[in-house]
Amino acid sequence: MNKGCNVSNAKNESKRRHIFVSHHHKDDAGVDKMTDLLKRGGCDARNSSIRALRPENQERMKKGMVKDETIRRWLRAKISWAGAVVVLVGKETHSRPWVDWEIEQAHKQGKRIIGVYEQGGTEADLPKNLHKYRDALVGWQSDRIMDAIDGKLDNSQKSDGTAWPKRDIKRIKCQ
């Protein structure tokens, strides 16, 4: 079963991909850089992830005025809309509990999970659930990111470009 992206059938939209980009919010600029990279590679990536909040909403979050269950419900819907989840691997990604939660949700929903190293990201920065559930892990090249999203690439590479040992993991979708 191909867990790839939702792809539009319209001729002029044949390279549109619906993705959810899981990332540390300090890496918001990296999300823009990645979608620009994909655009230059001929892909129209539609991202449903939560981006930087307005200052008043950030303050509400800090004060605990937004319940975690509300955030989880919102994130589940955004992940559900996407055909694949792309995890930006930066220096602090592994320490973000919401990133690990998003990866687990993507796994539960049967989504393809692709890790993409940001500049400076290393294997030490991989979230625990990305180790467990990833379908692919690639560097900062549009063709490799697209092939991973589309299910044409199912292997992983280290941040230096060398291959990870092949993992033979059977996955089943929970009902």
UniProtKB/TrEMBL annotation:
Q: Which residues form the Thoeris protein ThsB TIR-like domain?
A: 20-120
Q: Give the InterPro entries listed for this entry.
A: ThsB__TIR-like_domain, ThsB_TIR-like_sf
Lineage of the native species? Bacteria, Pseudomonadati, Planctomycetota, Planctomycetia, Planctomycetales
Q: Where does the chain cross the membrane?
A: none
What protein is this chain from?
Answer: Thoeris protein ThsB TIR-like domain-containing protein
- Recorded superkingdom: Bacteria
Organism name: Stratiformator vulcanicus
Point out the signal peptide segment.
none
